[in-house]
Write a structure and sequence with these properties.
three-stranded antiparallel beta sheet, nine-stranded mixed beta sheet, alpha+beta, Arc Repressor Mutant, subunit A, 21% strand
Amino acid sequence: MQYEPVIGLEVHAQLQTDSKMFCRCSTDYSGAEPNTHTCPVCAGFPGVLPVINERAVELAIRVGLALGCRIAGVSRFDRKHYPYPDLPKGYQISQYDLPLAVEGRVPVVSDGTEREIGIIRVHMEEDTAKANHRRSAEGEVYTLVDLNRSGVPLLEIVSAPDLRSPAEAREYVARLRQTLRYIDACSGNMEQGALRVDANVSIRPVGSQEFGAKVEIKNLNSFRAVERALEYEIRRQTQAVESGAKVSQETRGWDEAAGETLSQRTKEYASDYRYFPEPDLPPLIISEQRSRETEARMVELPRARRTRFVEILGLPEYDAELLTASRETADYFELVLVNLGERVPAKQAANWITGDLFRLLKSDNGSITDTKISPSSLAEIVTMVHDGKINPSTGRQLLEEVYVSGGSPGALVAERGMAQISGESELVEIVHTVLEKNPRAVEDYNRGKHQAVAFLVGQVMRETKGRAKAESARSVLLEQLQAGRAGD
């Protein structure tokens, strides 16, 4: 019997705010000493009162709109109880019955076809503390709790069980992360925990509409981990079913080194969390006007930008995908186009960015936001190549030099004498020199070995340090060779 996986993802995204969800403690705790970014509110002291972070609400609305969700006019915070040491209050302030946003979608490409993965809900909550498990010299395991992360604004984005393969799940997370980064809602840094994924997966016979027992894999922190963990879990469940065993509904962890999931506990149900409305926070009221104003301030999203690059600028899908992978790269490309004007095709600028500039950035892990090659400098290089002032080889050499020095491309061309030789009189003199230095090649040509011309063209290019046009060099060479033959 053949089985298919049914996958739904819960993505937890830290919002980029300066302060925590319900207090004024700084969220900039990376590298800080443990428990130095805390106060009585995020440490869960008795009697303290939370206050909703306005910036977090604004970013949450932005995310909901970017995902095509319906923003709720009224949402509410609840208390979600569970007895773990990373939760100082013994409960987490989250949203359950009335989430901020519902009924969205994320487009993914599966087997060459784009389809939409449903978003059930987007709700706000506070992050937990971080539990650090240690082992003493005597071999005893103990846990230290760092409260610096406790209370950081968090969004939970819950997909519908629409995903049907680990590769598709990976694509979904990548597209979601891209969107969150475009709108400056989340850094998307998975290694630092700013974006974490819980994956729910079950299997069922192909063609069946019934759901199997759901297993949740917790805290996946890379695209690779999402895909590998799901691949392993699908194999494990399939083997269990085929051997007649029962798949238990449980929560499992992912061991990256071992490449396997490990049982942690039985899967909780909603009733286990004993949700009830947070008595210290009022309902959150979002007017339609506020939603419209937030949407009006939104940047162009990746999908719309890709479409525009293809349909308006005439770029191939592949180029558009590369250029819109990050908002910074897309912005850079558009600034290059502004400096080029309409005379130079957009495709030429795209080639220089996705080819030579990407190569330079990759060579030293550079960022397009802090490269010394400004959009105007790159546009100047592209224009000079397009107009024939310099050839492509010189253009690449110039690009590498500006990448290091940050100098002016035009000034460097004038200073170094890098301009392409276009005058025939100058080329004739160089060709005469080449012919005098290579009498054997001339003799070969006169004997009918026309491949000697290619060698001589190479010598002209070498003599001019690549500044001559190969076509012009060949034309002048043939003229001089024919003239020489006629004079014999």
